[in-house]
Amino acid sequence: MARDNPIFNQFREHSVAEFFRKNRQMLGFSGKVRSLTTIVHEYVTNSLDACEEAGILPDIGIEIRVVNGDHCVVRASDNGPGIPQKLVGKALGMMLAGTKFHRYMQQRGQQGIGAAGCTMFALITTGTPVKVRTGTGTSKVYSCDLSIDVKTNKPKMLNEKMEEGEMRGLEIEGEFGEVKYDKGEYGPLAYLKRTAIANPHAQIKFKGPNDEEVLFPRASDAIPERPKEVLPHPLGLTTSDLVEMAHHSKDRKISSFLMNNFTRVSSGKIGELRGLLPDVNLNAKPRNLAWADAEKMIDAFSRLRWIAPATDSIRPIGEEQVKKALVNILNPEFMSVRERKPKVFRGGVPFVVETAITYGGNSGRHTQSGVSGDVIRFANRAPLLFDAGGCAITQAVKEMDWNRYGMKEFDSMPITVFVNFVSVHVPYTGAGKQAIANEEEIVGEIKLSVMECARELQSHLRGKVRAGEKEAKKKAIMRYVDQLAKDLVELSGTGDVERLKKKLVKLVEGKYKKKIEDATLEEIAGEAAAAQLEAENSKNEGES
Amino acid sequence: MVMIMARKKDAKALEKLMELGKGMVNEVRRGKSPNFEATVRSRSNVKYDESFGYLRLGKRKETRTFVNVGQARKFMQTVAVAAKCKKFLDEDAHTSIRGLFYQLKYSLGEDVEDELFTEQSESNPLIEDLEVALNLKREDLNLNTDRKGVVAGSMRVVDRFGGEETTINCAKQGRSGWAIPSDVDNNMEITDLKADYVLVVEKDALWQRLNEDKFWRKEKCILITPKGQASRGCRRLINKLADMKLPIYVFTDCDAWGWYIYWAIKTGSMNLAYLADDIATPQARFVGVTMQDIVDYDFLGKLTIKAKPVDLKRAQEMMSYPWIARHKEWVKELKTVMKSKKKLEQDALQGPRLSFVGEYLKKKIKEKKLLP
């Protein structure tokens, strides 16, 4: 079955190693810094998914040591369900054998390259196998050195051991070449920090070279609900999706394949489809679906009227969880979190946008030259570190008129904009899967959501400015209290300077305390009116 | 006797200052922001009062309070000025308003990071505020102004100053005359006044001329020159002499500046409207020189000067002032100036012979050829 996949066909012509080298870019192994971050990403994502599936609160450890030159040792450990001995090879030593590949549900990675890709990367850059140790909580601990037979794409286990011991979870350690440890925004630490923000239920411990140790503690004990597996909606499909699914289908006819594997496809719709596609044989075997016919079908799908897909397959992080995570990691002075209602793009793919803006604390990007506004992007909780320029999230934030929200200096403010794009189908721009396509509906929705957050931050900042002004006024008057008290006693020939000072201080403080309270009420009324106006404005903006 | 009088005079100012302070302290004790109220001194609040015959302040008041960010500094400064003046009175020491400014600059700001008085222009108006609010002159607060003006004539001044008493005989001041001090009220007493009128001469040169001619002795008058615009002390002295029932005659050039000097003596000025009750002398009359003089004295016709634009502009403006417009004689005089575009200096009267000035004045005063 796998042999019919065009990608697998290539395996026959080239060695797996060669395939890997040629497609490094696509697999996330381009550039030394990025390669290391990808390795960390693969291991952490595996752990998070495994824990989630098993209902375990994840405890994840990542350790990186620089060996020499561009060689690093990465050690990843978790407290997940572990891998049974007979599945270790398949899970970690077989390219493209991950369980994610054919499932249509919201997933972190969707890459499918997984830990096996890392095993392969270790092999081709250093020639060394990865060390695996795992237990499933059955007082047996299995360990081995794992590599891949590059000719057959089969896992090779060496030094297999089965020991007595209490262990549940997985430990993998590998030495990788052509990598570089980076402390900046593209490095493993930045990746883990963002992962912690999007996964408040996880605890992540990081140990880097030079003994740097960072702990991202768990912020919430709520394990995320498993997303529901749903059938795809015809409108969200691309030609290659359709071809790929058809070739894996056991259905006898294309018509039944469509009805069994997609939502909202009824026999009535098949009839309509036949009318639109007289020269495509919907009674043919789906395994033999040709690219050209698939293309015609996708085009026909877009011309039919469909019932929109169900949106309950989407599981955002949730407002409360995002708040907890942001407090935990960024410790902001202020934050505003928004979760929008599900929307669809490309006419049929449901998605949800979750956004947050934090201000102060550790918000913003802190560099040697100071603080700047930061945008942290996620797709299904997975941090997107690279290709920011071409991403819908970046575009939406960039297009916003920050001036209107009193944040003209966005570029030098301690602000973090958090955006999590949630969907069963994330429209990545490239094989690197680090940027979301600039679909109009997506950009618009992100913008609206970020605007709502920005509005809240604006009133917070306004209040701050006002309180600051009050404080400044109070201070300005206070400066004269000592002098005035002295002069009043001199002038009147009565009274005591110290007592008079105290009275005057009380007087000034009393006045400005009262004023602040009054102002707050005014402010609330004013804000309400302003918010309404803004809402109307943004509505117009959304329509235009 | 001397000391008792001194105490009594200063006591009035001292009392007022202390009352001001006590009122403020009481406000603070009652949990209120202390206030300072004074009549507004701006031009918009200066009115010509027909019943008094001079420019006075209107009723508009201005209050400044401490617990107000826009007024706190000024309020504090006002109290600082008042406290300083109280100290001067306590110590019986006098200074100028510039001296006060330096005292404030020196002693303030020990507890504050910034300067509380950066320029004298900050303290000067506060002094005037106090003068208005307390109905006092700055001289009462032991603040002197520059002396300007000279007097000669048959009168004596008893000056109690620096713990000593001196009697000045204004008839025995030789060629220089007695310099009019800034304060002619406090510890000053005019005695043995033997005169029929007061003659105020704009220019010192003419005053010297008349002094040399013994004009004041022959004519039984008090001869004063303000040396141009009259100072506060000079105006106050003229006012006091008028109160002693002496007619006041003013002798100036026939031009803008001369008229201004006359009207400032008579109806007061915008800037000092708040002191008008003490320094405006509406009884004053204008003796010359006038446009009519050119008609009456042929030789003057040759001694006129071309009027400058400022003179003509001023003449035009003056006709619109209610306190001038009500006098048809003045309107006629000014119209003549406008028409002839000429002006005349008092010095021109020395044309025929030096002592002619005296003859001229004697004749005009005797024949009451005066402008109101």
List its salient traits.
heterodimer; A: 544 residues; Helicase, Ruva Protein, domain 3; Ribosomal Protein S5, domain 2; 8-stranded mixed β-sheet; 6-stranded mixed β-sheet; 16 helices; 43% helix; disordered C terminus; B: alpha/beta; Arc Repressor Mutant, subunit A; Dna Topoisomerase Vi A Subunit, Chain: A, domain 2; 2 domains; 3-stranded antiparallel β-sheet; disordered N terminus
The major sheet of chain B is characterized as: 6 strands, mixed
- Helical segment tally of chain B? 14
Q: Provide the helix percentage of chain B.
A: 40-55%
- Can you tell me the CATH architecture of the largest domain in chain A? 2-Layer Sandwich
N- and C-termini, Cα separation of chain B: 43 Å
* Unreliable sequence segments of chain B: 1-9
Structurally, the number of domains of chain A stands at 4
Assign the CATH topology of the largest domain in chain B. Answer: Dna Topoisomerase Vi A Subunit, Chain: A, domain 2
The Cα radius of gyration of chain A reads 29 Å
Arithmetic mean of pLDDT of chain B? 90
The helix-and-strand class of chain A reads alpha+beta
How many angstroms separate the termini of chain A?
Answer: 49 Å
Structural class from helices and strands of chain B? alpha/beta
Q: Count helical runs of chain A.
A: 16
CATH class of the largest domain in chain A: Alpha Beta
> Looking at CATH, which topology of the largest domain in chain A would you report?
Heat Shock Protein 90
